[in-house]
Every structure is written in structure tokens, then in C-alpha cells.
Amino acid sequence: MSNRSVIDIIRNKSLRTGRSYDLGKMGLKELWVAYLTHGTILLYFALIIASIIGVIYTFNGWIPVLASVVVLILGFPLIWYIIHRWIMHVPILYQIKWTASLWKRIHFDHHQDPHLLNVLFGSPLNTVPTMLIVGGGIGYLVGGVPGFFAAFGTSVYMGCFYEFFHCIQHLNYKPKSHFVLRIKQLHVLHHFHYEKGNFGITNYFWDKVFGSYYEDAKARPRSPTVFNMGYDLKAAERYPWVMLKTGAPPRDRPAGSNFRENKVESSKNKKAA
């Protein structure tokens, strides 16, 4: 890709909604540019490099480092599942004034309009401390200080990996890979049919273990709260803090044409399955 085409993509106003890229209007080439130039991803890359340096300076053998990396890779899908299902999707966070803004940013905004890139990525103010405490903490227990750096760097890498495929799942693009197409179908169902299932991104093992996995729309009734996660007008009247922060009432479907686009996407994916 030439520098000229990269600049054209970055400056293309038709791909943007406010300060964020609209994934519903983008193809794979545009995603690569948006992803690799996004401030959050660039920060993650810097943290991965810093973690590698930390491992080098505290290195005392391969076993603690490799053990920490393996444990984090194997444990990441479960960590993601727990955070997604039992933190991002619980109503208690919007019912408390002091956590309402956090809940709005970490997931409500994404369900209100799943195409917007800026709210698809978690805020580093939330994700980095979580990776330090959970990922780094697990690494320290397994491999001491070098394990801390190795596991933290691995958790950041896994976050980058998940977020890229998360973008593809909302992208105006039909994957050629059957695996990627399938995880895209499952995630589209989470956002546009029934939000209380399919909490994974690339791995749905824990959905199957905890009974939240479903393969098609026939398996679950369509949820009336799929776009607002239960924070409807009635809830907003009682717990107004998210609505006050948003500056508008909660929506029961995404703005603009995104809802129609994803219904078409979902229909196409079902036929291709």
C-alpha cells in the first residue's frame, strides 16, 4: 500500500463519524490503516516492547517466562469471558452514580453503535490497569518478576489480537476464512439478536461451558435490549447518569443506516454458513 493511499484513507471523511472510523463503511484495507495508526494500538505496541525489555533485564531462566506466557494465552479467553459477561453486561454498574460513566465507556457506547472504532477499543485508562493487575499478577505468581513482564506483555498482545478480529466482526467485509466468517456470524448475533450470549471473540469454548453459546437466531428469542443492554428509557429515568453523560436518551437501535447494514450482513452470513 502506497503512502498516498494510506493518507487518503486517513483523511477520507466518508469513513468517519465524528472522531471515529465507521467500520460499517470500511473494507479490510481501510481497517489495516485505521488499526495500525490508532493511538490505542500504538500504545499497546509500545507496552509490548517495554515488557520485552523488562523480561530481558530481569531474566533468570526460560521456564518462568515461558510458563507465564503459556498460562496467560490459555487463560485469556476465560478472563475475557468473565469481564465481558459479568462486568460489562451487569446493570449494577449503571445503577451506581460513580460507576455509570465507566460502564458507558467500556461497553454501553459500543452496543449503542457497534460500528464506531473509538468505542470498540477499550479505553487504555481501563484496559492497561486491568492487564497489569490480572495479567501481570498471574505472571508474577507463576514466574516472579520476569513472569510479570512476560504475562503483561502477552496480555497486551492478546488484547491487540482480539481487538483486530473484533474489528473484522463489525467490518463491511466478508471473510474468506471459514473460521473468521463463523466467529463474525456469532458476534453479529450477540450485537443484533441476543446480547446475553456469545460473549467470546475468537474463542467460544467458555460460552459452551457456561451455557451462553448459540449458533443461530432460531436458538434464542430476539432481545428487545440488544442495543441498550437493559438501559432503556425507564431505566434512564431511574438511573439518569449515563443518559446525562451521553446527552441523549438511550436508543433501541444504532443511529443511521448501521442497523440495516448489519441485518443484511447477518442475512448474508446465515446463507453462507
Explain this structure.
With 273 residues, this protein is mainly alpha-helical. The protein has one domain (26-272). The protein contains 13 helices and 2 strands. It has a two-stranded antiparallel ribbon. Strand 1 (16-17) and strand 2 (20-21) form a beta hairpin. Helix 3 (39-58) crosses helix 8, helix 8 crosses helix 9 and helix 9 (178-192) crosses helix 13 (258-272). The protein starts with a helix and ends with a helix. 39% of the residues are buried. Residues 257-273 have low confidence and may be disordered.
Summarize the entry for a quick read:
With 273 residues, the chain is mostly helical. It has helices at residues 3-11, 28-37, 39-58, 62-88, 92-95, 97-112, 117-120, 124-169, 178-192, 205-210, 233-238, 241-246, 258-272, and strands at 16-17, 20-21. Helix 3 (39-58) crosses helix 8, helix 4 crosses helix 8 (124-169) and helix 9 (178-192) crosses helix 13 (258-272).
